[in-house]
Design brief:
The chain is mainly beta. It is about 10% helix and about 35% strand. It is built from 2 helices and 32 strands. Strands 1, 2, 6, 28, 29 and 30 form a 6-stranded mixed sheet that branches. It has a 4-stranded antiparallel sheet with strand order 3-4-5-7, with no helix packed on it. It is globular, with a radius of gyration of 26 Å. About 40% of the residues are buried.
Length: about 475
């Protein structure tokens, strides 16, 4: 029987590396042995973790600043240990979070046109982990909600607006956490761990909803991410060290919906997912290729499309959000591939003859507006990300500065105790008042101590003057 070729508009997607003058050259990419992507991009900036002496640093470059990057170019350098992961806030293109070996998470505000001086002062430092912090990821729909996971096997969810840890999941993982991913509306997270388990967790109820032991038999790191329909996609290794990918339904984790063997390379497969087109891109660390698959409702569910290959192996990879792409050129994704000394953009395009906007390639996509405030989410509300049309291209709005109201009372907000929203908002209003009173007391104390010092010095000066007059007499 003649094999019928499956119809797909993405069958002929092709990747193309940009010309040399559009790359970012002379960057010393970090050599830390940690399986994160080392690169994060948004429609304004590309951020890359770099080698830094005496601490941890990363570069933040405006997208248009291509070519050779000067060695003296200012960095973000507030960490005392190497930076392991970075992530741009989806609701503010000037805010980025970083996790480091120094056990802290820092959130930074990048100036409008990029850095002109080294940035050493974060907007807020989040301290709560006892070992290095290797995973950072923002909530997809709620403003100022940030998740971090460390080598202490603890997941913490922070309200960045108050600088507090509101949810701590410290007894769910018995070994190092390899990755954490939010679902589409941020009501659930999925995690993979060195104990070979994939877990689906409701963080606000602090409860494991689904769990699969030995999702992949191999001992090497796994990855798991949520798809837009709620299913899970995982990458890992078989017992024979072959790389695998699998598709799971969280409601029944006994058997995978699909399981495919790939090859015997030992690089961890980093999955990048486009929910608008249902395409999954797999970038292996140390590979020189990007494979891409389309995920559909018909067997075999995960359909291989093609492979983009180049000569150089990749040290890491950044994935541009859909609103940063050029819709006039039918660009459906863009990667920022890290080499040893440079960052090279790779553009994925669907060939089309027409110059008109292609509605089928660009359904409405996640926009930069948050649909929930942090307090709403912690109080139990859910909402999908707000969607925008790319028909006339994406025009960024003015970003507002990230404001952090420190709760100096040190008590956990009542929101975590399943209280209603009104108590949460009331508390949020009280914080600044207490903050001001505290500041007022501090200033009064300082004035008093300076006055005391001055009066003591006056007494001392008059005594010394007496002694001098006796000596001269």
């Amino acid at each position: 029987m003649r094999r019928v070729v499956r119809q797909s508009k993405f069958r002929h997607v092709f990747g193309q590396a940009v010309k040399n003058d559009q790359c970012y050259d002379d960057i010393r990419v970090s050599r830390v042995t940690w399986d994160s992507s080392f690169c994060a991009v948004n429609p304004k900036f590309v951020a890359i973790i770099i080698e830094a002496s005496g601490g941890g640093a990363f570069l933040v470059l405006p997208l248009l600043k291509t070519g050779r990057i000067d060695k003296s170019y200012p960095t973000v350098c507030g960490h005392t240990g190497p930076v392991l992961d970075i992530d741009w806030c989806p609701h503010n293109d000037h805010v980025i979070a970083s996790g480091s070996e120094d056990c802290t998470v820092m959130v930074w505000q990048i100036p409008e046109n990029g850095l002109t001086l080294p940035l050493t002062e974060p907007v807020v430092v989040l301290e709560g982990h006892s070992k290095r912090v290797g995973i950072i990821t923002w909530h997809p729909a709620a403003r100022n909600v940030l998740l971090s996971a460390g080598c202490d096997n603890v997941v913490i969810i922070w309200n960045v607006g108050t600088g507090e840890a509101l949810i701590t999941l410290d007894e769910m993982h018995s070994d190092i956490i390899f990755n954490v991913c939010w679902n589409r509306n941020g009501s659930l997270i999925c995690t993979t761990s060195k104990d070979k388990k994939v877990r689906v967790i409701d963080p606000r109820k602090e409860k494991i909803i689904a769990e699969k032991d030995k999702a992949h038999e191999g001992a090497r790191p796994m990855r798991a991410i949520f798809l837009s329909d709620g299913n899970l996609f995982t990458t890992g290794f078989s017992r024979m060290s072959e790389r695998q990918l699998a598709l799971w339904n969280p409601k029944n984790m006994n058997e995978p919906i699909a399981l495919h063997e790939m090859d015997t390379s030992n690089g961890v497969l980093l999955p990048f997912y486009d929910p608008d087109t249902n395409i999954m891109y797999l970038c292996g660390k140390g590979d020189s290729s990007i494979r891409y698959f389309e995920i559909t409702d018909e067997s075999p569910y995960v359909h291989y499309l093609s492979t983009f290959s180049s000569k150089e192996p990749q040290r890491g990879m950044g994935f541009m959000p859909k609103r940063g792409l050029d819709v006039n050129k039918c660009e459906i994704s863009r990667f920022y591939k890290l080499h040893e000394r440079k960052c090279e953009p790779i553009i994925m395009t669907v060939p089309r003859k027409s110059d008109l906007f292609q509605d089928d390639l660009y359904p409405d996509t996640a926009g930069p507006e948050a649909t929930l405030e942090a307090e709403d989410w912690f109080a139990g509300k859910n909402a999908d990300p707000s969607l925008i049309s790319l028909k006339d291209g994406y025009h960024p709005a003015k970003n507002r500065d990230l404001k952090v109201v420190k709760n100096i009372l040190g008590s956990k907000p009542a929101v975590n105790k399943k209280n209603d929203l009104s108590s949460a908002t009331k508390k949020a209003v009280e914080v600044p008042r207490h903050h001001n009173e505290h500041k007022f007391d501090e200033i009064l104390k300082e004035i008093k101590s300076i006055k005391d010092t001055i009066s003591n010095q006056d007494v001392r000066i008059s005594k010394l003057e007496e002694q001098m007059s006796k000596i001269t007499a």
